[in-house]
Amino acid sequence: MRYWLVMPAAGSGRRFGEPLPKQYASLAGRTVIDWALRPFLSDARCAGVVVALAPGDAHWSASAERAASRAQTVEGGADRAHSVRRGLEALRGRAAPQDWVLTHDAARPCLAQVDLERLLTRLADHPLGGVLAVPGSDTLKRAAADGSIAATVDRAGLWRAVTPQMFRYAHLTEALDAAFAAGRTPTDEAQALEWLGEQPLLVASSPANLKITTTEDLSLAAAILTMRSRQALMRIGSGMDVHPFGPGDHVMLGGVRVAHTHGVIAHSDGDVILHALCDALLGAAGLGDIGQIFRDDDPKWRGADSRGFVRGIMQMLKERGYRVVNADVTVIAESPRVGKHREAIRTAIAGLLEIDADAVNVKATTTEHLGFIGRGEGLAAQAVVLLTGG
Predict the structure, then answer these.
(1) Quick check: helix, strand or coil at residue 385?
(2) Are 322 and 235 in contact (CB under 8 A)?
(3) Is the pLDDT confidence value at 61 over 60?
(4) Which of 30, 225, 304, 374 could form a disulfide with 370 if both were Cys (CB 3.0 to 4.6 A apart)?
């Protein structure tokens, strides 16, 4: 997965009521646009960022950090659609026709990592693309000219479109050009695709993904970001894996080869400890599960060393600002016995998680001869991890 980001930021924010355009308003120690850019500038999957600025924008370069970022700037247009189109033009020759392009509002600072991941995951194999959106929950009223209620609108099937929106580079470019040629200006990218007869997918977003429109919105956004930073201090995940025994003379436990009367039946090396740890790490970060990333129907993972899975997931966590605090593992098996291998397993796991060995606990139990494990037909492992950061 790789994508490009185009951010229209040429608006003046006339409804905002402050001397500065709303994207440059101060918010929780940064500016609104800095918060809006943050999830993408820190994401290794983002191949490049283009920000469309107002002509003569004197505020972008006022931030040394922002000016030194890997974001390219272009002059925006008279409205959002034309700014996005200029951003797409800046990607010509770099973005392939089928590359994904995400568009995100500069005044939308509260995009949660889980919402971005949901969008990328849901649309990864989609032929067209779609948008983050919030299902309608309030009763909707249509106003008359004098401000009275003209009608109550059925909210069934109604969604409020937010951003990012995600479409293929060539298709989005074609849709915007077709709209402009017809003398039409879409209010968002999805509408341009709809005018071509397409049906973009709706992907549920948190209502907290708000857009700054008035100064009151800044207070709400600050509260959301403050709450999220406190929640990010600690994140707990759990994982479990099971494998049946099969032909072989050893099993892999935590990256350590342990001699045994049987091997395990698995697509990779069948390391139940590391597979459980992978799911615990992904769960703590809200990134899905091991099967979504290392699919068991993909031949390239056949017989794979599970330590590579953990290293790959650790890289994903680093890109999102997480680090592991500690890990607790339980092996559930009648055999092999873990005791004499415990310290080697602890040391191996600590190295993979980049923590001290005393932050890793490895224990074992049996099922008292109950069930398939008790009958010696397989083994299992459970893992719990604590992350900090994000």
Answers:
(1) strand
(2) yes
(3) yes
(4) 374
